[in-house]
Amino acid sequence: MRIKSPFLCFFILKNVNIWEEMKMKLEMQRDTLLVALQAVSKAINKTALPILQGIYVEVTNEEIIIKASDNTDTLVHLIPVDNEGVTVSSTGKTVFPKNIVDIVKRAGKTVEISSEDNGLITKVKSGKKIDFDMNCMDPLEYPELPIKDLSQPTFSVSGEQFRDLARKSVFATSESQTRPILTGVCLTVKGDCIELVATDSHRLSKLNLSVTTSNKEEMSIVIPKGTWDKGLKSFDLSKNVEFFVHELSVVMRNGQTVFNSRLLDGNFPDTSRLIPTDHKQKMTIDRKELISGLEFINGVVDDKKTASTKLHINGVASLSPSTAQSGKGNFDIFYDMFEGEDEFDINFSVRYCLEALQSIDTDTVDIHFEGPMRPFVINPVYDDISHSSKELQLILPVRAS
Amino acid sequence: MRIKSPFLCFFILKNVNIWEEMKMKLEMQRDTLLVALQAVSKAINKTALPILQGIYVEVTNEEIIIKASDNTDTLVHLIPVDNEGVTVSSTGKTVFPKNIVDIVKRAGKTVEISSEDNGLITKVKSGKKIDFDMNCMDPLEYPELPIKDLSQPTFSVSGEQFRDLARKSVFATSESQTRPILTGVCLTVKGDCIELVATDSHRLSKLNLSVTTSNKEEMSIVIPKGTWDKGLKSFDLSKNVEFFVHELSVVMRNGQTVFNSRLLDGNFPDTSRLIPTDHKQKMTIDRKELISGLEFINGVVDDKKTASTKLHINGVASLSPSTAQSGKGNFDIFYDMFEGEDEFDINFSVRYCLEALQSIDTDTVDIHFEGPMRPFVINPVYDDISHSSKELQLILPVRAS
Question: Do A185 and A58 share a structural domain?
């Protein structure tokens, strides 16, 4: 057949092109694929668009791009093709329903994936066991989620440091949407240090960590608390986490996983003046004993979320419930050291103090008081003075009822 | 002072008597008390009367009786006084609020309990740490829950057997209240054997266990499923469980814990004729492989609670989802042996079959089929023929959609 019209020729070529692009085929290790699918699936949010209920898979000759998103947070996992027993017979893309994770979990050692019908049906095969044609979604409908330039990270922390940063700050963010900015953690990069501040306006957590930054000038961003939680769930914490700070988003790279999260918009309050620099009394006390006492108070009261306790200092740290609902009495703790006038009362939230103490890792803590109606500050006491991080927990007292 | 009026004398004596009864005082090991409180607290039900929200404690010179109840189930823990470092200074009783458990948990090695004000305020002391006056409830308001005669158990099983009896039957009870009798497990004592049957009318679980019974004549009772769950939570399963069967209740004794449960009232259906005695086909298959296949189907479908699967037999056992919602295909399992005509289809509930297989402990199971619309029976295949228990799981197929 001779093609006479240049227009028809163009049409045929274009069609062939689409077909070429979509007819993907690859074979790989079950475990490699499963790790990738499980990591990105943490970004799926039931309330997002139907297409975002799926997991996007794109196969090129260089890498396999596996992606999930809720339009705010996007998780991408990249598997290089020259690695880990991946064989690409033909490139293409598709959007799997989320239960591809369960299917791959039940597969044998290797998995074969091949798409037909422009990626709308994808065959998953594994040995003589599994042969399943999955109904997939149209990859052309999947929103474009540009991958940012990831050449030079703003700074980098170890996986363990990432876990600590999250664990020591997220709990202090606000649970209410009254001031949305307070539902995130404020991260400031200055010189060779990062600072994290979280507050719900009744308590505050502040951390400083020495890092190597590529950044000259000071910059602050507010990372939503959900971002930290998703990072904890999908990252491999034996590997570093590199942060790339952009104007509207932060990208975190952890091994083959890249996590792009939108930032919270607004001005985080200046909290530096809230933190007292001086104190009237200072108590050095065993952290676990104090936790045990607060848990005793929690056992006595009915509503553990709002209960407050009275701390009475007089030769001993004596905790008692602020209300006499279930009885009267106290839990006494012998402190290690006390500076300043050794007789006063202060009332505060049991939960806030418990959460602050549980975020600290040292055996002993210093508590600085400035008076019964002034915020008090809890500091870890390190054996080793040259510790690379600094942290403090601040709690506002409550009025005695 | 000389008492002139005999009436006044009586009054004083009576008063002294009440005071004597109520002024309880004892000292004991924290752990002994905690085990008892935790065991009985499983009987507390938030919807019961206010007095039943507490834990009843009665101290006599022989034993400490610790009790909780929701009026249907009653758990009693008895601590002998001549044992485990218990010192009774004076007898009496009180009803602690439930959070006594949390308080004792935070105590030091020994706990001192002393009641004042007729048991309405009870002081809990532990070393120099805890000194707390708990508001308690009036022990005279606590309902009388007579302890039955526990001299001769009807039969006795090991803790492990108790766990197995519960695990292999409770899941097959009905979740609906349409026929309340089916929410329990029917227990029949006959000769030197007990038989347990549970069914929700779509599937049935049946177990036989050889035991030594003190019972001459056959008797059947229906034990609510909640009783099994509470038993599992509060019993020490390294110890035996003795059953005392009464007309309206069953009492189970496990070490120092005595559990009295009301029985379900009504006629449990006669299920003996439902169980086929013959079969057309018999398949011997690896239990874990079959579970893996059913979990694959569960991964593919959307509603895991109601999903059904088609089992197609033809040289291989091939599972596929009954609906093509998420795709088409199958999970193939090579069976060990097949007797009878080797080509047919049967449809059944994925969940029912999974739960039945998960209740079985052997590596291999026999499945007996009688036709696509007749119930099929799953039996464990024991290496050891002289096994002391017998069990079967019966499942009704569903119509292909």
Answer: no
